[in-house]
Design brief:
The chain is an all-alpha fold and 74 residues long. The chain is built from four helices and no strands. The protein has helices spanning 3-12, 17-31, 36-54, 63-73.
């Protein structure tokens, strides 16, 4: 950790808990920036899967069957 980061951390640790929590939330959100390219890839994947399902190329499995099979694996 750099000296400037340590200074910020030391200062942040003197804040009340609710302000530290708000600061943490803001910092975490700053790390999680949307990736338009990745979002577009997921949209295309979802559209491709829907098209395959609608054309009969892809079969659906009932959720209860999936959960039952998963339960049998444990």
């Amino acid at each position: 950790m750099s000296n400037s980061a340590k200074v910020v951390l030391d200062k942040a640790l003197t804040l009340p808990a609710n302000e530290r929590a708000a600061l943490v939330e803001t910092l975490i959100l700053s790390l999680d920036k949307p990736d338009p390219t990745l979002d577009a890839e997921w949209v295309k994947e979802a559209e491709d899967r829907l098209s395959a399902y609608q054309s009969g190329e892809l079969a659906a499995i009932d959720a209860e069957e999936v959960f039952r099979a998963l339960g049998e694996q444990t």
